[in-house]
């Protein structure tokens, strides 16, 4: 039996007997997760709002313990994939998780939502309807991303290809996504179609559905052809204003990785390395527009540093997070969420306990912010899956209930956040059961 030692934050040592008890608890809780039957459960949910540096629901502070499952819509296209979405959402509810970040885009790819500019596949749209309806079933909210900076699922490169093929494109560079007038029209039409979509299952337009936590403009934007950042900034301001003109009920973020730009004094003291200031982005400037409600940051220390030790990486993580929370509190006056964080299992000498230390470091920083009612609004692990999804996994993905220690860390975070500010998301009767378990109690 492996003996796990946690050293992040204030640190603790998990006794072997405690580990065995958690294993038994996790097995009893999740052993039958894929066989859970479908049920109807009409949960009343309120919109998440922003009050200065905090998220609020019905007047109560709301700190997020969330995760990424980008694959929801793609899997929901076919009936045989839908039990996986249901299983993941119900498992997340059993852990008390509150928000899932997932893709609301698939441009010109297999199971495409947008087949060509302005042409949508109704079957795929119904898959997204299903995802939203299923989230409502268990009282979990969704943060929906609208396009990818990367090539996966089409991304900005696909938009450029469409414009180039139709003879209206200004440039074959995929950064022309941000400045080409024709492509901006493509994207605006796409956004309007999604926001005004009437869910075929619930009958609610997306822009009127409180199950949606908020919108993300673009996953990990970079515009390296304009290192000044002006091109991306202009796009953010135009698109965020456009979205708010259609939907002023939902929160909106950019989708940034959190790099400081060339004019920021933090580019040399906080950025991972010199290259981060040359990506055409700037965390402060990009997050500042009035239509942007909260800032987003990603955390991938092993992608950003090849030679640091685990201790060095975790030290950077804490500094990275504290810096951005400070920006939210003192400069932006907005919440900051860490919408992706992950540690690769391809690192030399990797052991699962290292990932647990990393998770605990992230959770502890959020918890400390929550205790002070600070701007650190929550975190989203990248990524969670269910069994049998090996082909969709990357070197960061986990099935959380297969690791007793990881499960305990996640549920402890749920409970200690709830202990400070109460539970505002209607998780279906599981919170008391989770937090009363002696191996989850946080003191």
Automatic annotation (TrEMBL):
<keyword id="KW-0964">Secreted</keyword>
<feature type="domain" description="Glycoside hydrolase family 5">
    <location>
        <begin position="46"/>
        <end position="384"/>
    </location>
</feature>
<dbReference type="GO" id="GO:0000272">
    <property type="term" value="P:polysaccharide catabolic process"/>
</dbReference>
<keyword id="KW-0326">Glycosidase</keyword>
<dbReference type="InterPro" id="IPR045053">
    <property type="entry name" value="MAN-like"/>
</dbReference>
<protein>
    <recommendedName>
        <fullName>mannan endo-1,4-beta-mannosidase</fullName>
        <ecNumber>3.2.1.78</ecNumber>
    </recommendedName>
</protein>
<dbReference type="InterPro" id="IPR001547">
    <property type="entry name" value="Glyco_hydro_5"/>
</dbReference>
<dbReference type="GO" id="GO:0005576">
    <property type="term" value="C:extracellular region"/>
</dbReference>
<keyword id="KW-0812">Transmembrane</keyword>
<feature type="transmembrane region" description="Helical">
    <location>
        <begin position="12"/>
        <end position="30"/>
    </location>
</feature>
<keyword id="KW-1133">Transmembrane helix</keyword>
<dbReference type="GO" id="GO:0016985">
    <property type="term" value="F:mannan endo-1,4-beta-mannosidase activity"/>
</dbReference>
<comment type="similarity">
    <text>Belongs to the glycosyl hydrolase 5 (cellulase A) family.</text>
</comment>
<dbReference type="Pfam" id="PF26410">
    <property type="entry name" value="GH5_mannosidase"/>
</dbReference>
<keyword id="KW-0378">Hydrolase</keyword>
<dbReference type="InterPro" id="IPR017853">
    <property type="entry name" value="GH"/>
</dbReference>
<keyword id="KW-0472">Membrane</keyword>
């Amino acid at each position: 039996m492996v003996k796990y030692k946690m050293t992040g934050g204030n640190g603790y040592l998990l006794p072997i007997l405690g580990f065995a008890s958690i294993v038994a608890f996790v097995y009893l809780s999740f052993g039958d997760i894929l066989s859970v039957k479908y049920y109807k459960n009409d949960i009343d949910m309120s919109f998440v709002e922003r009050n200065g540096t905090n998220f609020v629901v019905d007047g109560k502070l709301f700190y997020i313990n969330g995760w990424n499952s980008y694959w929801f819509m793609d899997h929901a296209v076919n009936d045989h994939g839908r039990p996986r979405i249901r299983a993941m959402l119900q498992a997340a509810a059993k852990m008390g998780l509150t928000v899932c970040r997932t893709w609301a885009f698939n441009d010109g790819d297999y199971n495409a939502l947008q087949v060509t500019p302005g042409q949508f596949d109704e079957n795929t749209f119904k898959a997204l309807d299903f995802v939203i309806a299923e989230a409502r079933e268990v009282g979990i909210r969704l943060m929906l991303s609208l396009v990818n900076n990367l090539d996966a699922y089409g991304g900005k490169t696909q938009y450029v290809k469409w414009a180039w093929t139709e003879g209206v494109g200004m440039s074959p560079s995929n950064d022309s996504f941000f400045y080409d007038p024709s492509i901006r029209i493509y994207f605006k039409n796409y956004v309007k179609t999604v926001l005004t979509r009437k869910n075929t299952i619930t009958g609610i337009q997306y822009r009127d559905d409180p199950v949606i936590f908020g919108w993300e403009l673009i996953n990990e934007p970079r515009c390296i052809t304009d290192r000044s950042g002006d091109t991306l900034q202009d796009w953010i301001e135009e698109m965020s204003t456009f979205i708010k003109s259609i939907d002023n009920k939902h929160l909106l973020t950019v989708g940034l990785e959190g790099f400081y730009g060339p004019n920021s004094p933090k580019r040399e003291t906080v950025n991972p390395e010199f290259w981060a200031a040359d990506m055409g982005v700037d965390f402060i400037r990009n997050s500042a527009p009035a239509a942007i409600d909260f800032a987003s940051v990603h955390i991938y220390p092993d992608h950003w540093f090849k030679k640091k030790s685990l201790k060095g990486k975790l030290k950077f993580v804490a500094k990275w997070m504290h810096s951005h929370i400070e920006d939210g509190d003192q400069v932006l006056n907005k919440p900051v969420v860490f919408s992706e964080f992950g540690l690769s299992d391809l690192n030399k000498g990797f052991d699962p306990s290292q990932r647990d230390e990393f998770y605990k470091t992230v959770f502890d920083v959020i918890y400390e912010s929550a205790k002070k009612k600070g701007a650190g609004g929550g975190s989203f692990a990248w990524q969670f899956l269910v069994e049998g999804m090996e082909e969709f996994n990357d070197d960061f993905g986990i099935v959380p209930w297969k690791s007793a220690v990881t499960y305990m860390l996640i549920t402890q975070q749920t409970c200690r956040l709830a202990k400070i500010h109460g539970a505002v998301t209607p998780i279906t009767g599981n919170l008391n059961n989770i937090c009363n378990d002696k191996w989850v109690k946080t003191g």
